[in-house]
Amino acid sequence: MGVEIDEYRCRIGTFRGGRGRTLAVFLLGLRFVRGMLAFVVLIVLLYIGGVERNPGPVTLESIAADMKETRGSILAVVTDIKSSVQHMQQDIKQIKEHCQRLDGTCEELKRAHNQLSDKLTSLEEEIVRVDSERHVNSLDIEELKTANDDQRCEIDSLNDEIDRLEAYSRRDSIRIFGMKESEDESHEHCTKSLVELLNKYFTFKVWKADDMVRAHRVGPQRAARSPRHVIAKFARSSDVASILKSREARATLREKGVRLAADLTRRQNQKLQELRERGQHGYFKAGKLVVVDGLQGDNYDRQRTTGGRRHDGTGYDKRPEHGAWATTAARDGPTISTTASDATRQRETSPRQTPRQAVRAGSLQKRPQTRSQSTSEENGPPRA
C-alpha cells in the first residue's frame, strides 16, 4: 500500500525517538517492498511525530476565508495604528504647544537678561561716576578742612588779639561791687560817691573827679535788690594798680560788703572760673594768667611752675587775719602766657595743628558764661 500525499505530509531525515533511539529511515524506490516498507515507515513516522494531517488542496473559499480573516486582522492592526497615530499626533501637538510656550518663556528670559545686563552696565557706569565724584569730593573736603583749620587758627589769633586789645582798654578800669545806690542816680552822682569812697579808704593820694574819665552803673536799675556794680575808668593806669595793691583798704571795704576788682574780659573771667572749678586760683598780670597753688601757711601764694619768664607781679594771699583775698607782692615765679602775640609766635614756629590743639596750646578751654559771671575779681573768687 502506498502513502497518499493528499492525506499526509512526510518529513524525511534523521529523527530522535521518544526513548532516545535514533532511527535512520531510508526510503528506497524499491517497488517490491513498497507496500511493507510504506507501512513500516508510516508506523515509524506516526511514532516519532514526523507525519501530520494534510489540510488538503487550497480552494477559493478557503483562500477567500483566509483573505477575509487576514483583511480583518489587517483592518484591526490599521485601526490600532490609526488610533496610535492619533494619540501620537495629539502628543506631538501638545509637545509643540509646550515648545512654543518654552520658546516664549525663553524670549522673555532673554529680554529680561538683556534688560538686567543693560541695568548692570548702567549701574557699573554710575558706580564709576559716583566713585570718581566721591574721590573729587574727598579732595575738596580735605581742602576745605585745611582751609577751615587755617581759618580757625586765624579766628583764634584774631580772638586772642581782640581779647588782648579789650584787656588793654580795660586796664584803666575797676569794678566796684556793693557800693550803695540811690534812686535816679546819675553819672555825676556816681562819680562823686566813688571819689568819697576812695578818699576815705585809699588815702595814699587825694582823689578828685578829674582822676576818673567816667563812672557809671551797669545794667538797668533794680528795685529792692542789691545795688548794681560800678565800672570806673581812671585817667591813669597807675592809680588802678595802686588801688588793687592796697590790701588793707580792700579788706576793710570787703568787711563792709564792698569789693573792688579789675575789669577783666569775658575770656579772662572764664579762665579764672575754670581754675576755681579745679581748686586753683590765679590772676592776670600784663595780660598773662598767673596760677597760684592753694597752699596754706607762709607758702600759700606760691606760684606753680608751668614754664615762661619770671616776673615780680602781684600775687594773692588769703590770710586769716584779713578774711578776704588781698594783693601782695608775688614771689618770683613763672606765668602762663595767654596773649595773642605769644600764641601767634608759637603757631608760626610749631608744625600745623588742629584748632583744638591750637586752643589747648594757646589758652585754657573756653566755656560760655553769663554777663554777671564775667565780673570776677582780678585777685580771686567772689566772697562766699
Task: Walk me through this protein's architecture.
Helix content is 49%, strand content 14%. The termini are far apart. The protein folds into four domains: 8-53, no CATH class; 63-168; 171-263, 2-Layer Sandwich (Alpha-Beta Plaits), CATH 3.30.70.1820; 265-384, no CATH class. The radius of gyration is 66 Å and the shape is rod-shaped. With 384 residues, it is of the alpha+beta class. The protein has a four-stranded antiparallel beta sheet with strand order 6-7-5-8. Strands 1-4 form a two-stranded antiparallel ribbon. Strand 2 (14-16) and strand 3 form a beta hairpin.
Estimate the global geometry from the Cα principal axes.
rod-shaped
Structural class: alpha+beta
Element string (H = helix, E = strand): EEEHEHEHEEHHEHEEEEEEHH
Number of helices: 8
Low-confidence stretches: 1-30, 295-352, 354-360, 362-384
Let me know the average pLDDT.
72
Helical content stands at: 40-55%
Radius of gyration: 66 Å
Main sheet summary:
4 strands, antiparallel
- First-to-last CA distance: 170 Å
Number of domains: 4
Find the count of extended strands (DSSP E, 2+ residues): 14
The proportion of residues in beta strands is 5-15%
Strand order of the largest sheet: 6-7-5-8
